[in-house]
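I have a small job for you when you get a moment. Can you supply me with one protein entry, sequence and fold together? It will help me judge whether the discrete encoding reads sensibly. Write everything out right here, beneath this request:
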Amino acid sequence: MSEPLFVIPLWADLIAVGLGGVQGALFASGFRGQRRLDLLGVAIIGIVMGMGGGLIRDLLLNVTPVTLQSNWYLLTATGAALIGMLLAGLFQRLNAVIVGLDALVIGLFGAFGTSKALALGLPPVPAVFVGVCSAVGGGILRDMIMGLPVAIMHVGSLYAVAAAAGCVVLATTEAFGLPLVVAAVIGVVVTTVIRLLAVIFDISLPEQRALYRRKVAVETSAIPTVKP
């Protein structure tokens, strides 16, 4: 595959990377006891959160990772992570702001991934897949490095679903002739809104165990019982 003609603006990419770095620091600051992290550990989590999505995106697209083509990506991710650690107490008191930034980061990485895939000529469905992987990739790598259960695999607020919805809207509107940049902005807004609503109203996908229990209840309801 040839090098992409679509170029994500450096300032936009760095904003996403920086916000991801801050998220990584806030995540790391929540550990206590033997699991607590030092400066290096926080920096690594910040780099993974800030750059992981972009690296996964470019690897899936078989193009040179843009995060390794400039000094600013590593510096931004590391600096944001360290600043986030120093100001963790302040950030945690601004929980609503952090939730909003989290939703925005998901939307940005999802939109960047889908837009780049579409610009490279991928069909809409694979392009959406690339976008979702980009949106959730940093969190998956973070959990794997920390030896934790992967968050998106468990019951919780709609995370990957919000990213998928935004990516689908982006790909659909672009297919109907909307400029890619405008479609990307709409995709970011859709992802952000869905994620925020999911957090505010505690919306999540049905739990697998609950589905299993319902199935068992239906099957056993037909079994006759003998009362003493």
Q: What stands out?
A: Confidence is low (pLDDT under 50) at residues 1-5, 211-228. Residues 43 and 82 are 6 Å apart (CA to CA).
